[in-house]
Design goal:
Length: about 180
Amino acid sequence: MRRILFAVLVLVFAFQAPAFAASQKIAIASMAKLIKESEAGQDAQKKMEKKFETAKKQLEGKQKELEKLKQSLQKQSLVLSLEAKQDKEIEFKRKVRDYQDLAQATQRKMQLEEKKAGTPVLQLIQKVVNEYGKKNGYTAIYDKKTSGLLYVDETVDITNQLLLEMNRAFRAGKK
């Protein structure tokens, strides 16, 4: 009985040894850096800023208008009658509400556009990471911030190599 058990254990370990012996190549990359510093990410960011430049100026103008109206209301509050003062306060509150509504609507539009503009960048990152991982024989490539890894040796960080590959792919896609 012992011989059979010993033989079974030897066979089990013999067949598992090659699985443990296979080298695993693991790397990390910073998605945030790839998005922020890649040409594709910077291009998307510039497009977003350009698209909402007028909306931001409009919001800033309305905010300055509200500040002037508030200062005017404070200066006139001693001189105005109670009824006139209440009318001015109601007008001010209405303008504040209008400003807040406009700011929220603009924020929602910006978030939707950001998502729309960011999708091609994320798709490019996914494509480049997959191709780079296959080409260089990586078993896994993890995101530096969201992977949950507590310690990683910086020699396995391939963010800069991926950044170069992304920029090449972006330039090739623009042609």
